[in-house]
Amino acid sequence: MKIQPTSRYIRAQAAASGEVILLLGVRRDESPTRAGSVGRYDNGSRLNRHNDLVGCMVYRPIVELSTDDVWEFLASVAPPWGGSHAALIKLYRDAGGGECPVVTQKTDVPSCGTTSSRFGCWTCTVVEKDRSLEGFVESGFGEFGPLIAFRDWLASIRNDPNRRMARRRNGRITVTDDGVFVPGPYTFDTRREILTRLVALQDRTGRTLITADEIARIRTIWAEDAAQAAGWAADAVI
Questions:
Q1: Rounded to an integer, what distance in angstroms lies between the CA atom of residue 149 and that of residue 6?
Q2: Nearest to 222 by CA among 187, 171, 172, 184
Q3: Which of 54, 100, 133, 225 minimizes the number of CB atoms within 10 Å of its CB?
Q4: Which H or E element spans position 181?
């Protein structure tokens, strides 16, 4: 959802201009894993050729900045569009993250509890726990509690084979070279259950978690997938 559209755009710009420079806000200090990935593409120059995209050079302007450097800059320099970074600083502080803003005055003393304050999709099940969302609840934002429960439920059913279709979306049954079966998408019953729970959660919290247009698109995809599945079944019988 993120990488493919971005890559298409970069390729289009490179084709039109011959070469493009991608500005990447990556830092070594983010984590040991990030430092390792940055190191793999270092070539001793300020510009590094992209490992996948032809005609794309990568420039990392803040790669050597520490976390404290970033917060110190944000706390002391106003954004070019006006206002201040106060809301951003408060956001991370309320999340109880480890990346705490630099203290510029006594009233700014942050309260930091966890070791990660990275933000992403609130339904992401890649991480074991959403520390930032939990941090908000601990900071007094109890209304986010039901969102955590929904996200944890998604994580609990993710690898349930009874909730997965055998075929992937391309119609293939996938088995790795090691003999591991890779299941397809959720079954239609599970998809309906997820959507029903999400709509109920939206009604309960009063927050917009999914729009009517998105629901309509989901139902269209379900109809397309159902027709495709029926076709596979018919082919299997033949």
A1: 32
A2: 187
A3: 54
A4: strand 181-182
Asked if residues 56 and 50 have their Cβ atoms less than 8 Å apart, the reply is: yes
Q: Radius of gyration (Cα) for the chain, nearest Å?
A: 23
Strand partners, 57: 21, 49
132-150 residue pLDDT tens: 777 777 777 778 889 889 9
Angle at 88 between CA 87 and CA 94, to 5 degrees: 85
Q: What is the C-alpha to C-alpha distance for residues 53 and 28, in angstroms, rounded to an integer? A: 22
Query: Which residue ranges make up each domain of the chain?
Result: 3-59
Q: Is the pTM of this model over 0.85?
A: no
Paired sense of beta strands 56-59 and 20-23, if any: parallel
Task: Give the dihedral of Cα atoms 220, 223, 229, 230; nearest 10 deg.
Answer: -150
